[in-house]
Specification:
single chain, 9 helices, alpha+beta, four-stranded antiparallel sheet, nine-stranded antiparallel sheet
C-alpha cells in the first residue's frame, strides 16, 4: 500500500483526487442518501503473486463508502484478486462469499461500509500479473456498530479416564522414559516450548494416516470468516482410530505425561516446580520462563481450578487461516498449546499454515511452530500471548499426494 495520497502533488493523482472528492462525492451523496463530508482518505495498493487481504469490514470511525479504481492489465478469474463480498448470518457474522467482482481496467467499484460490510481481496494466483488500484473511503456521520458474539467457541472439558496401557500403546516409548521426561522438562522450563519428533509409535501413526483418508469423515467449516477459516472433523463420523487418538490426548494419563514434560499442574500427581531447575531466560512465547508465568496465576487460583482441555482434529488446505482479533486478546489466558501434526510431508514455510505467536499489542513475532510430520509441539502462553495460523496460499498445491495436512490441536489449562 502506498502512503496517504491526500497531499500527493502528482498532476494525475491530484486531478483524480479532486474529481473523486468533489463532483463524484456530491453525486454519491445524492444517490445513496448518505451525507458525505470532505474528508480525503485515499491510497494505492499493489498485489502480486500469493498476496491476499482477508475478510474484514472496513469499519473504522467515519468510513461510510469504500471505493476501488482498478488499474490492471487484462484479467481473468484464473488470476484471482477478486473483490469478494460476504453474506452474513443471523448473528451478523460473515459466512460465504455472495458476490465476486473481477478487476477490470479503469473500472470503479464502491460499496457502503457498515456493520455487515464484510469483504476480502482473494489471493493473487498469477505469477506475472500485478493488481494495482487506487482505493479509499468517503467519510460521513458514524453509525452504531454493535459487537457481534463468537458462537464458535469450544468448551473446556476435564480429562477422560483411560487405561494407562493406552498411553504405552500409542506413544513413542522414548518419551515415556522418566529420565527423558526430566530432560524434556528442563528444556521446556527454560524455553516454554519444545517439539517432540516421532511422537507416536510408527505403526499407530500409519494407522492414523490411513484413517485420515477415510471418505466417511464429515468435515465441518469453522468460521466466521473474519476470525478463522478451516475445517474440523465431526467426531461422530471419524474412524475409530482417530477417535482413540482424540481420547488419548484428552486422557488422564496424557495430562500426567504433559505435567512431566512441562512441570505444569495438569494432574494431581504432577511434579512440584523446582525453581532451581528452571532457567531465567526469556521464553519464546511470552517473555518469561514457564515456571515464572505459572507463579503469576496465584496459588489460591490453582487450588480452586481443575485441569481441563479442549481440542479438535483440523484439516488445513489452500485458503485456510486464523486471525488475531481484539476479542481473542481479551480472552487470552495461561494455557499450554499442543499440536500433533500429521501428513505434512513436503510442506514448506512459504506455503503458510505455520502458527505464529505474538505479544499482545506488539508486532514482533515471538516464535513460529511449523507443521512437522508426526511431531508434538508444546508452547506455554501467558495472558499477553496471541497466536494465528498463517494464510495457506496456492503454493501448497506442490505438496505430494494431496495439498493438505492435519493437526490434532489442543489447549490445556491448569
Amino acid at each position: 500500500m502506498t502512503a496517504d495520497l491526500k497531499k500527493c502533488t502528482s498532476p494525475c493523482i491530484k486531478s483524480l483526487r479532486e474529481t473523486l472528492y468533489g463532483p463524484f462525492r456530491e453525486w454519491l451523496t445524492k444517490i445513496t442518501g448518505i451525507p458525505l463530508n470532505d474528508t480525503i482518505d485515499m491510497n494505492g495498493s499493489r498485489y502480486t503473486d500469493r498476496d491476499v487481504l482477508l475478510c474484514h469490514d472496513d469499519a473504522l470511525e467515519g468510513r461510510r463508502i469504500a471505493y476501488i479504481l482498478y488499474l490492471v492489465p487484462p484479467w481473468t478469474a484464473a488470476d484471482g484478486g477478486t473483490l469478494d463480498l460476504f453474506k452474513v448470518d443471523e448473528n451478523r457474522q460473515p459466512t460465504v462469499v455472495g458476490r465476486s467482482l473481477m478487476p477490470s481496467w479503469n473500472t470503479l467499484a464502491f460499496f457502503e461500509v457498515g456493520p455487515v460490510s464484510f469483504h476480502q481481496v482473494s489471493e493473487i494466483l498469477s505469477s506475472d500479473k500485478v493488481r494495482i488500484s487506487i482505493n479509499g473511503w468517503f467519510h460521513g456521520p458514524d453509525i452504531e456498530r454493535p459487537e457481534a458474539s463468537d458462537t464458535a467457541l469450544s468448551p473446556l472439558q476435564t480429562s477422560l479416564t483411560l487405561d494407562v496401557d493406552v498411553l504405552f500403546d500409542w506413544v513413542n516409548p522414548n518419551y515415556l522414559d522418566l529420565l527423558m521426561q526430566v530432560q524434556i522438562r528442563e528444556k521446556f522450563e527454560e524455553d516454554s516450548e519444545i517439539e517432540l519428533e516421532h511422537f507416536l509409535k510408527e505403526e499407530k501413526y500409519q494407522e492414523v494416516i490411513a484413517a485420515l483418508q477415510s471418505t466417511k469423515t464429515s468435515w465441518l467449516s469453522r468460521g466466521p470468516a473474519n476470525r478463522r477459516h478451516y475445517e474440523k472433523a465431526d467426531s461422530d463420523t471419524v474412524p475409530e482410530v482417530l477417535l482413540q487418538c482424540l481420547q488419548l490426548l484428552s486422557s488422564d494419563a496424557f495430562f500426567l505425561t504433559l505435567s512431566n514434560f512441562t512441570g505444569l499442574a495438569l494432574h494431581e500427581l504432577s511434579p512440584e516446580s523446582d525453581d532451581e531447575s528452571g532457567a531465567d531466560s526469556d521464553s519464546a512465547a511470552g517473555g518469561a520462563s514457564c515456571t515464572e508465568k505459572a507463579e503469576k496465576v496465584g496459588e489460591s487460583e490453582k487450588e480452586k481450578s481443575v485441569p481441563s482441555c479442549k481440542g479438535e482434529l483440523c484439516r488445513w488446505q489452500h485458503g485456510n487461516y486464523t486471525m488475531l482479533r481484539d476479542i481473542e486478546a481479551a480472552r487470552a489466558t495461561f494455557a499450554l498449546d499442543a499440536f500433533l501434526f500429521c501428513k505434512c510431508e513436503g510442506w514448506q514455510p512459504e506455503y503458510g499454515g505455520f502458527i505464529s505467536y505474538l505479544a499482545k499489542e506488539e508486532d514482533e513475532e515471538l516464535m513460529t511452530v511449523n507443521p512437522t510430520e508426526n511431531s508434538l509441539a508444546l508452547v506455554y502462553c501467558d495472558k499477553d500471548t496471541l497466536r494465528f495460523v498463517k494464510y495457506i496460499n496456492h503454493g501448497i498445491r506442490a505438496m505430494q499426494d494431496a495439498p493438505q495436512f492435519y493437526s490434532f490441536s489442543f489447549q490445556y489449562q491448569e
